[in-house]
Description:
It is a multi-pass membrane protein. By secondary structure, this protein is mainly alpha-helical.
Amino acid sequence: xxxxxxxxxxxxxxxxxxxxxxxxxxxxxxxxxxxxxxxxxxxxxxxxxxxxxxxxxxxxxxxxxxxxxxxxxxxxxxxxxxxxxxxxxxxxxxxxxxxxxxxxxxxxxxxxxxxxxxxxxxxxxxxxxxxxxxxxxxxxxxxxxxxxxxxxxxxxxxxxxxxxxxxxxxxxxxxxxxxxxxxxxxxxxxxxxxxxxxxxxxx
Length: 203
């Protein structure tokens, strides 16, 4: 019995048994290129109007802003990384995964409503939830709820400026929107990425 040639393809079962590499984020994508082009065009327009001094003034202010934001971005990224390691994958997948149903959307909505902090906290946490088993729908519900309902901003800014009645009615009217957005996110995700959805269901 002859040995299989090294050129022959590996059996399908061996290919399926190998772990699939995770999604690699490219450091430079289309969004980065578009932003870089817009920055270059804007800088050229400012230079034409205000000269080199105007461009350097904007760069100085932006570098000062960047130095203030950088620690927050670093803290948010570290928070997301630690959360993805701390949270139990099985419980998150059961509570917020594709099979969590309406309860998963409600949990995501409630979590987003009470999540404190700004975007440097919310988006790393959302990314960590996706990494540990939450599906698109529950994560969308969380982000939309944090955006529309977030109690921190309501207490610190909205109630003192807009008043209690306005804030309460705005929250009540906004309550169904995260759930609807999450349900629509699940519906679209299953149809755009049927293979990924079937793999998640099998897992």
